[in-house]
Amino acid sequence: MSHLKRTLMVTSLALSLALSLQACQNYSLLGKNNAVGRPAGWSEISHGNDTAPDYARVFPQDRVNRIEIKIAAQDWKLMQDNMTELFGSGGSGPGSGFGSGGPGGNFTPPAGFVPPEGFPPGFPTPSPGASASAPAPNNTTPNASPTPRPTPAGGFPGMRPGGGGGPLEFSEEDPIYRPATVSFEGQTWNYVGIRYKGNSSLRSSWGRTLKMPFRFDFDEFESEHPEIKNQRFFGFKRLTFSSGFSDNSLIREKVAADIFRKAGLPSAQTAFYRVYLDYGEGSKYFGLYTLVEAPDKPMLATQFKNAEGNLYKPSGNGAKFVTFDQKAFPKKSNETTSNWQDIQNIFSALHASRSNPEQWRSGLEKVFDVEGFLKWLATNTLIQSWDTYGRMAHNYYLYADPGDGLVHWIPWDNNMALSGSGRPDGAMMPGGSVPNTASGATPAPTRTPPPGFQGGPGGGMGGPGGGAFSLELTAQEVNESWPLIRYLIDDPVYHAKYVAYVDQVRKEAFAIEPTKAMYQKAHNLIRPFVVGADGEQKEATLLSSPEAFETSLDQLNTHLQARHAAAEAFLSK
Fold first, then answer.
1. Torsion angle of alpha carbons 119, 462, 374, 256, nearest 10°?
2. Is the predicted pLDDT of residue 457 greater than 50, yes or no?
3. Helices 370-383 and 492-507 meet at what angle, rounded to 10?
4. CA distance 442 to 219
């Protein structure tokens, strides 16, 4: 073989070996974190999947972060069109803030409805003989409003037909994801999935304001764009932005989560954010939001013993725990495994014979974190959160922790907490009138559901025979349609623990002076971005007026004092 041929062969072998080594390196990178072909500006710390979640950066407690979102005009239109398909035309668009219509958003009750005494002011009431329709847009006549979607039988627009008797159930289908570009602290995340989220908060805001709740999924579009495979936001895959619906203070979502966590309960981390969004018409301030940690691997890893278990987000009649319905317990982890045994075990233990209370308690405690639930019940009832279990069969998660073999309760969606009614102004509601109860007076009647809520006994909205929780500490009005509350409160051992937790929470996690200080700190922190020159704008706010925000702290403190008075009266009996 000639010298030239030997040289060429050696060179060829060397080149082949080099290419093979490079391919192996590329394969290793691709298998580990798909680092090949990443977008410009990608770093493993900020974008990668193998970094620890940076809670201090994403959920700061001493500042209001700013985040910017850009959505292509055609994708923005697709999102709005999809909302119309899901929820009807609603209002006519932005312009409802700062002096617009009353609470409740874009629905009108069935014809003939007369609000019961004490019903929230501003609730739309049709004239006799009128058909249900969407309210007129701001500054327009009713004749100028878009054609509304007819009210389904048994409920308000946005609900499933026949949904009025039990828990309010809105569209079964989530809004669509569309890609967005997210900018934060000089860095950019491409093809981030964004969609609207929520139930009553979304339905009532739709068509009234640009400020609606939404969610990010940072690798939602990795199939179409493999360069963002396993993209994260400083360790987080999903993040939720709460708009502050039904909360003039704009701090309830955050401080309620903090109170739950101070009480020793698993609860999402939260922080305040200024949100700017460009949907083809330039960047606009969409208002002050609360960023809420999605129950996901980071939260499960930091607040539980093992992060590999089944996570559920219950909703619907089955989520009341009367009769097991698999559809009411959609999985948010391990979705490909068709095993709901951990949830079925709770149903079996809860509904087992209670003729031997000790045996019944033992069976339940083997599969369910009863202590955690009782602590949640005491905390939730003391601070009063109106849009969750006991009144509505949603807004909680369940996590089956392989580390201890128990299913744990996780509170969720706290914008209607820390209020005497769940109303934006926090005013007391009949049936939940804390001052009356504290003084020993007879409480006002519970809210009566309007015609069209074809519920009766066991219905989810409360009222006579409804069995829903008025959030009085005795829980006497709760019936067996909410068995996790009724059965446990009826058991003397569990009742004693519940009472002890009420006392503990009022002295610690919900103590008057520290809670007032927490309210004040949060209010002062966000105030420059809610009112004034840099505050929310009319087309992107849920506030009826700037004054509503300014006086909200007084309402929170009044509620705090009232709940302590109620707790003292309850504990003295």
1. -30
2. no
3. 50
4. 54
